[in-house]
User: Fold these one by one.
Assistant:
Number 1:
Amino acid sequence: MSRAKREIIRRRCRCIRRNRRIAAGFSMALLAAIVFITFQNPRVQAEPTGACKYYADVYVKSGDTLWDIAQQYITDECGSMESYIREIKEINNLGVCLQAGQTIVVPYYADKRVADNEQIPSDSLLVGIG
């Protein structure tokens, strides 16, 4: 084999090796970008609960406390009892005491596929869907 042919073959081999390295580097960068984007936002992977936030008008009876009313409506989506009561107070601009005969708005979560009246006490009145 002549010297010129060997030089051409050597150049081709170098070119092929360089192209393989570039392709491997590009593939690794693409894979890293996909992994980064996938794990960057964990909410993307979370399953939706299917629960919607609703609001109910609750008529306060004599002897009712905010704690008692909150216990009837709280679900896992609401968080802690303290944060749920705080939300009820903020929605209704409440102080410390409830008054018999008062009507307050109470948020709650329910599955979209279940009828509203199956999720809330029967003495409540639905006022809206959130």
Number 2:
Amino acid sequence: MNKYVRYISYAILSSTVVLFIIPAILILLLGLGNAISGFAYEKKLKNGYQLVAMDGKSDMSIWLSDNTVLVEPTVFAVGQNDSFIIVKQHPRGNKEQINYLAIPLINKISEDLTDNIYGPMNSEEFDKLRTELNINNLQFTIVFKDLEENNFQGMM
């Protein structure tokens, strides 16, 4: 009889570990991961650039790999290929204004990465630059509709 009680005890203990303790550890680790990075949102882009929001989505900006902010908030759309990253931005969250920027990844315009950027510019200037650089087919593939519409509530 002791043998069966021992097996039942192991079974109960095993199911408790699987059902409660392991999920609790995973939740704790996932929570600590966000706390350690300190970012509300982070997405790696080409060539070490990053799309980052520190405290909330209204802080969305483009960072260099050394944590230097290259494009100030509020970035709401990004497109990229092997040659360029293109960006749409509401400067300081002002939805009345849209800035366009282009970051060359191959044919850099400056060795100083903080100066290696076209813009900010308006829509007409951006369309002209796209034609000059032959990037008319490059589309904005990362779009935050709530930021585009200036609704900064919540995270995606």
